[in-house]
Amino acid sequence: MEATRTRVRDNRVVGPETIALDLATPDGFDARPGQFVKLSLDVDGERRSRFYTLSSPTVDDTFEVTVGVDPDGEVAPYLAELETGDSVTMAGPFGSAHYEDESRTTILAGGPGVGPAIGIAERTLDDGGETAVVYRDDDPVHEDRLDALREAGATVHIVGSDVDLTDPTADALAGDADEQVFVYGFADFLDAATDALAAAGGDPDRAKIENFG
Question: 10 Å Cβ neighbour count for 126?
Answer without folding.
Answer: 11
